[in-house]
Amino acid sequence: MKYLLLVSHGDFSQGLKSSLAMFAADKVDEVIAVGLKNGEAVDSLATRFSHQIADLSDNTFVVLGDIIGGSPLTTVCNVLAQKELLDSSIVLGGMNLPMALNALMMKDILTGEEFVTTVLAEAQSSLRQFKPSSTDDEDEDEDI
Where does the signal sequence lie (predicted)? Predict the structure, then answer.
């Protein structure tokens, strides 16, 4: 099985997993969320994550991290490397909800560079300014 692994500082990854369940409840069991807790040492994160994936050694991972080069993502990648799982994993940074949802839905359909291009394009296209507009005074009391 291919798992989506969400990696973050704090509880961001767990919150993102919760949000994914709203859109893809049938696939949320394929999502693993791990975050570096405030004040936690990276060695503790490594141990906790290693235990979390102990029974998943025959699987592959799509890893989404909040910050490329951040302690949580580098720690998780080190653990995957120690378990000889990193070479078969895809690792992307700068995760957001559209990116994670697209990765979850496409991880079993697309592979390699096609998967990476599709997921990154979705993440980038979701980044833009939202400019609400009201058409007339009657609409002022309506929700946007």
Answer: none
